[in-house]
From TrEMBL, chain A:
Lineage: Bacteria, Bacillati, Bacillota, Bacilli, Bacillales
Annotated source species: Virgibacillus chiguensis
Name listed for the protein in its UniProt record: Phosphate transport system ATP-binding protein
Keyword Signal: no
InterPro entries: AAA+_ATPase, ABC_transporter-like_ATP-bd, ABC_transporter-like_CS, P-loop_NTPase, PstB-like
Gene Ontology biological process terms, A to Z: phosphate ion transmembrane transport
The keyword NAD is annotated on this UniProt entry: no
MF annotations from Gene Ontology: ATP binding; ATP hydrolysis activity; phosphate transmembrane transporter activity
Keywords of this entry: ATP-binding, Nucleotide-binding, Transport
Record-linked Pfam families: ABC_tran
From TrEMBL, chain B:
Presence of the UniProt keyword Hydrolase in the record: no
Species of origin: Virgibacillus chiguensis
Membrane topology term: Multi-pass membrane protein
Protein name: Phosphate transport system permease protein PstA
Segments crossing the lipid bilayer: 21-47, 71-100, 120-139, 145-164, 218-237, 264-286
Gene Ontology annotations of biological process type: phosphate ion transmembrane transport
Cellular localization per UniProt: Cell membrane
């Protein structure tokens, strides 16, 4: 057995080193070539009633990167995330000003269809929230509401999405069972798969691992690294190590303002603002 | 110096324990009182009526002769009445609940409606009878037929169904509908696919319980004027009708003339109680079966 596995490990190492090499190339080109943005936020202000929750946010989200948003509780990071797919409007007293463009379309305009936006921008929530339906129905929900009725196509979407969320092998034999029978970590990956099923461009994640144990957290983090190849990901997290591990860029929010937004390496090794340094070194928050 | 005097505590101990036991008995008696009254009632009714229940009693027409009198007419009347009440209350009641919970902007108008619905649930049933008499029997000129009675009963139970459905809709976790909206579902798709299926057990339970109230209710129909005379079996919603509780009412009144009518009333009560018991059991079954879904 040992003799069999050893060469495999070597192969894997080679693959990894190749990946590292390509990512180094990517890193060098990143500085030279101007990367495409998916979201551009200009002077965004947001109020919950009289509470000024977001103040003059200016931020660009880049394509096929993981953008982490960190900051203490109540700093507006989740609010900002929910503004990106206008879920924030479910709170009745919300008012906004400023402009957010998604691929050059102004999404805060009243004429812009939220349903359209949310088809291209998927969301994964803090608490795993599968529907009280079968695993299959959970994944097929999105395609179905967008009018796909063909059983064969639905089957393919379900398999592709579950594979994409690397949970296919665990659930392929019990697709008809209720998703509530799965563990928390599996439920969260089901929610990610459900989100992949509508083939979005962007995935918003609101503290996706905060309700999970360390092992499940690791699996979701690995998954995020995988997804990055095809999707642009914005993740809100309380966990600074997580932001450092998985993100390419990090925005630090404090009291509704963006204190600092830069490449993750720079934020965590050489932040330019004192408040960022205080926060990441654990002096507050 | 100690503040708590051990001797004094010992002295008080007995009276404290006695008081404790007395109150326990008081609460127990309060509970038992209702049960005893109910048991006596059921016992008396069964003693009086059980021997009168047979196939003829269930299938015969009304008759002045106690031996030949049956309650088929009242059973059919109750059936037709429910055929009006169920769709009307479900459509209006659940529709109102969905609007108030999911569509209406939270504000003064919504609060005003909410308060009024709560108040309507407390209005005495005879007032609904007068309302039904004025609107359905006279103004719309239906006469005292199933449709008029059914609509009046619907008004009576509507507030109960609305409140029960609202509570059921409210108890569907917000994160489920958020997940649906997050995938680009419209409001109606979310309501239809996520919120209503999750709220359905609660809505059904509330509806069944309020239907059993409608089945047992008498006062509004007395006001509308249900004939106590011998009428043919109702065959549709525009026919004159009687219902089980009305039958009980008339037989009880007339038992001063013909003694056996009291037995017939008791027998009808048993049938009505069995019917209500079955309905409530269904409601409890539905509630338990679907309770732990999220």
């Amino acid at each position: 057995m040992a003799t069999l596995t050893k060469p495999n490990i070597k192969v894997k190492r080679q693959v990894i080193s190749e990946e590292e090499a390509t990512s180094e190339v990517a890193a060098t080109t990143k500085q030279n070539v101007h990367k495409k943005t998916v979201y551009d936020t200009k002077d965004l202000n947001l109020w919950y009633g009289d509470t000024h929750a977001l103040k003059d946010i200016n931020l660009s989200i880049y394509e096929k990167e993981v953008t982490a948003i960190i900051g203490p509780s109540g700093c507006g990071k989740s609010t900002y995330l929910k503004t990106l797919n206008r879920m924030v409007e479910l709170v009745p007293s919300v008012k906004t000003s400023g402009v957010i463009t998604y691929k050059d379309k102004s999404i805060l305009d009243k004429s812009f269809k939220v349903e359209d936006l949310r088809t291209k921008v998927g969301m994964v929530f803090q608490k795993p929230n599968p529907f009280p339906k079968s695993i299959y129905e959970n994944i097929a929900y999105g395609p179905k509401i967008h009018g796909i009725r063909n059983k064969k196509i639905l089957d393919e979407i379900v398999e592709k999405s579950l594979r994409g969320a690397s949970i296919w092998d665990e659930v392929k034999d019990r697709l008809k069972e209720n998703a509530y029978g799965l563990s928390g970590g599996q439920q969260q990956r089901i929610c990610i798969a459900r989100c992949l099923a509508i083939e979005p461009d962007v995935i918003l994640m609101d503290e996706p691992t905060s309700a999970l144990d360390p092992k499940s957290t690791l699996r979701v983090e690995e998954l995020i690294q995988e997804l990055k190849k095809d999707y642009s990901i914005v993740i809100v997290t309380h966990n600074m190590q997580q932001a450092a591990r998985i993100s390419d860029r990090t925005a630090f929010f404090l009291n509704g303002e963006v204190v600092e937004y830069d490449e993750t390496d720079k934020i965590f090794t050489n932040p330019s603002d004192n408040r960022t340094e205080d926060y990441i070194s654990g002096r507050f928050g | 110096m100690k503040y708590v005097d051990t001797n004094q505590v010992q002295k008080n101990m007995n009276s404290r324990l006695i008081k404790n036991n007395i109150l326990k008995s008081v609460f127990f008696l309060a509970t038992i009182f209702g049960l005893i009254v109910l048991a006596v009632l059921i016992f008396r009714v069964i003693m009086q009526g059980a021997s009168w229940i047979n196939m003829d009693f269930l299938t015969n027409k009304l008759s002045t002769s106690p031996d030949r009198a049956g309650i088929m007419g009242a059973i059919l009347g109750t059936f037709w009445l429910m055929l009006v009440v169920i769709p009307v209350t479900l459509i209006l009641g659940v529709g109102t609940a969905i609007y108030l919970e999911l569509y209406a902007k939270k504000g003064r108008f919504q609060g005003f409606i909410q308060t009024n619905i709560a108040n309507l649930a407390g209005v005495p049933s005879i007032v609904y009878g007068i309302l039904g008499m004025t609107i359905f029997v006279r103004a719309l000129d239906f006469g005292n037929v199933v449709l008029a009675g059914g609509l009046t009963m619907s008004l009576l139970v509507l507030p109960i169904i609305i409140v029960a459905s609202q509570e059921s809709i409210r108890s569907v976790p917000q994160h489920l509908s958020e997940a649906s909206y997050g995938m680009g579902a419209t409001k109606w798709q979310t309501v239809k696919n996520i919120i209503l299926p999750a709220a359905l057990p609660g809505i059904l339970t509330g509806s069944i319980l309020s239907l059993s109230r409608a089945i047992g209710e008498t006062a509004p129909l007395v006001v509308i004027g249900i004939p106590a005379l011998l009428i043919p079996f109702p065959g549709g919603i525009m026919d004159k009708f009687t219902v089980l509780p009305m039958q009980i009412y008339y037989w009880t009144i007339d038992s001063s003339l013909v003694e056996e009518y009291a037995n017939l009333a008791a027998a009808t009560i048993i049938i009505l109680l069995v019917l209500l018991f079955l309905l409530n059991a269904t409601a409890i079954f539905i509630r338990n079966k679907f309770q732990k879904r999220f």
